[in-house]
Design a protein that fits this description.
Number of helices: 3
Helix content: 40-55%
Shape: elongated
Strand content: 5-15%
Strand order of the largest sheet: 1-2
Structural class: mainly alpha
InterPro entries: Tnp_ISXO2-like
Pfam families: DDE_Tnp_IS1595 (PF12762)
Number of domains: 2
Number of strands: 2
Radius of gyration: 18 Å
Distance between the termini: 38 Å
Protein name: ISXO2-like transposase domain-containing protein
Largest sheet: 2 strands, parallel
Order of helices and strands: EEHHH
Length: about 100
């Protein structure tokens, strides 16, 4: 299931055969986490996604801009490092140095 805010760019997710739940952050609504299952667990929220975007922006900041052509490669490196929480930051810097010298 994809949990997002109500930005119109997400409207096509159901067309892609993805289950989609939203939270409404509009002024006057201010809905944050909510539970849809009646079990008291607030499973519909976008906090994880917002935290992930913040981490990705922090990762990209030292590069001072990334070409759209290479963005997917930068995101793949970020994803690899994020998924391997025990990865030492120096190892990532070394790998990025090797990658930039190879092109």
């Amino acid at each position: 299931m994809m949990c997002t805010d109500e930005w119109s760019g997400y409207n096509r997710l159901p067309e892609k055969n993805r289950r989609h739940a939203t939270v409404n952050h509009s002024p006057g609504q201010r809905e944050w986490p909510r539970g849809d299952g009646g079990d008291g667990i607030r499973e519909v929220h976008d906090n994880t996604l917002e935290g992930l975007w913040a981490a990705l922006r922090t990762f990209l900041r030292p590069f001072r801009g990334v070409s759209k052509h290479y963005l997917s490669q930068y995101v793949a490196v970020f994803q690899w490092a994020y998924n391997l929480k025990e990865t030492i930051p120096d190892t990532l810097r070394i790998l990025m140095g090797i990658t930039s010298n190879a092109t």
